[in-house]
């Protein structure tokens, strides 16, 4: 679309239309039929693209067309072109989740769930499978929150791995109150949120007896059960070695009478501590059971 510069009879001045000036005898510009038809067709093309029927009696159809919902369609979910971003597209991409829904039983997530906030409910354990990682683009995100009364397993589909805190696993477990943001980062599902903390080396631990628990401060708790020898002594070897130092240990005996358990002076090491037990009569014996709780860092 341009001025009719190649039509000499149009009488343009400096490439634009001018008015007739009778006082100085200057003729006005003429509008060629081809130019007038071209301008009209340009406008009618916009009107028709908006699904409107052109009307000779309306002078507001072009504005109506530009404001219509048909003229500017919302681009596809992962469109990265330079097409017009409608408010629908912007709201979906920024500031809000695309939607939310509840899951209460075994479910296969799909690309349609990308950007949604998904809450896990129910009373029984079940598994939620992530979609094939090749079916979604990099950056695709699922936001998960568990309010179920039983554990929910979030598992990979295919050969992909799910990676909380740098680990590479085939699944993670979410318990009530935990949240997870799962993001497609190239060939893995990266996990952020409270559900990933238990997989961090900083918070690692082992349940049961013996067992241990690491804390964010660097402190480590360890516990277990040992049995005395004929001297009333027992060597408690910790489940893991303290990286820096042993700090303290408290111990109690298992039985029906009074007894005392002490940490033998100077025996506390990174890997173990020696305990000694005496009964109420200051006697010692083999096969007495001692529960200990040690702390270090």
Q: Could you explain how this protein is built, in words?
A:
The chain is mostly beta strands and 297 residues long. It folds into three domains: 8-66, no CATH class; 99-200, Jelly Rolls (Sandwich), CATH 2.60.120; 205-296, Immunoglobulin-like (Sandwich), CATH 2.60.40.3940. 10% of the residues lie in helices and 32% in strands. It is built from three helices and 18 strands. The protein has helices at 33-49, 61-66, 87-93, and strands spanning 99-103, 107-108, 116-120, 126-129, 141-146, 152-155, 161-164, 171-174, 179-185, 188-192, 205-206, 211-214, 220-227, 233-237, 246-254, 259-263, 272-279, 289-296. The strands form four sheets. It has a six-stranded mixed beta sheet, with no helix packed on it. It has a five-stranded antiparallel beta sheet with strand order 11-12-13-18-15, with no helix packed on it. Strands 2-4-6-8 form a four-stranded mixed beta sheet, with no helix packed on it. The protein is rod-shaped, with a radius of gyration of 38 Å. The chain starts with 32 loop residues before the first helix and ends with a strand.
Blueprint (SSEs and pairs):
Elements: H1 33-49, H2 61-66, H3 87-93, E1 99-103, E2 107-108, E3 116-120, E4 126-129, E5 141-146, E6 152-155, E7 161-164, E8 171-174, E9 179-185, E10 188-192, E11 205-206, E12 211-214, E13 220-227, E14 233-237, E15 246-254, E16 259-263, E17 272-279, E18 289-296
Parallel strand pairs: 1-3, 2-4, 3-5, 4-6, 7-10
Antiparallel strand pairs: 5-9, 6-8, 9-10, 11-12, 12-13, 13-18, 14-17, 15-18, 16-17
């Amino acid at each position: 679309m341009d001025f009719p510069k190649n039509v000499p009879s149009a009488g343009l001045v400096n490439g634009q239309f001018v008015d007739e000036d009778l006082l100085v005898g200057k003729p006005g510009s003429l509008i060629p039929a081809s130019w007038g038809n071209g301008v009209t067709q340009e406008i009618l093309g916009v009107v028709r693209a908006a699904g409107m029927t052109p009307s000779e009696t309306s002078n507001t159809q072009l504005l109506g067309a530009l404001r219509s919902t048909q003229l500017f369609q919302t681009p596809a979910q992962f469109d990265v072109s330079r097409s017009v971003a409608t408010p629908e597209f912007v709201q979906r991409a920024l500031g809000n989740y695309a939607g939310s829904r509840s899951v209460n039983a075994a479910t296969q997530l799909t690309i349609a769930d990308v950007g949604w906030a998904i809450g896990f409910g129910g009373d029984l354990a079940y598994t939620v499978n992530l979609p094939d990682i090749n079916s979604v683009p990099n950056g695709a995100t699922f936001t998960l929150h568990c309010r179920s009364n039983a554990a929910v397993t979030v598992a990979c589909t295919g050969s992909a791995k799910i990676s909380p805190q740098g680990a590479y696993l085939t699944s993670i477990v979410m318990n009530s109150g935990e949240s997870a943001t799962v993001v497609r980062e190239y060939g893995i599902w990266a996990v952020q949120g409270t559900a990933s903390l238990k997989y961090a080396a900083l918070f690692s631990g082992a349940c049961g007896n013996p067992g241990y628990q690491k804390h964010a401060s660097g402190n480590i708790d360890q516990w277990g059960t040992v049995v005395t020898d004929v001297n009333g002594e027992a060597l408690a070897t910790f489940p893991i070695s303290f990286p820096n130092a042993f700090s303290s240990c408290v111990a109690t005996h298992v039985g029906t009478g009074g007894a005392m358990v002490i940490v033998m002076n100077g025996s506390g090491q990174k890997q173990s501590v020696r305990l000694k037990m005496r009964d109420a009569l200051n006697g010692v014996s083999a096969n007495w059971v001692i529960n200990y709780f040690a702390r270090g860092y």
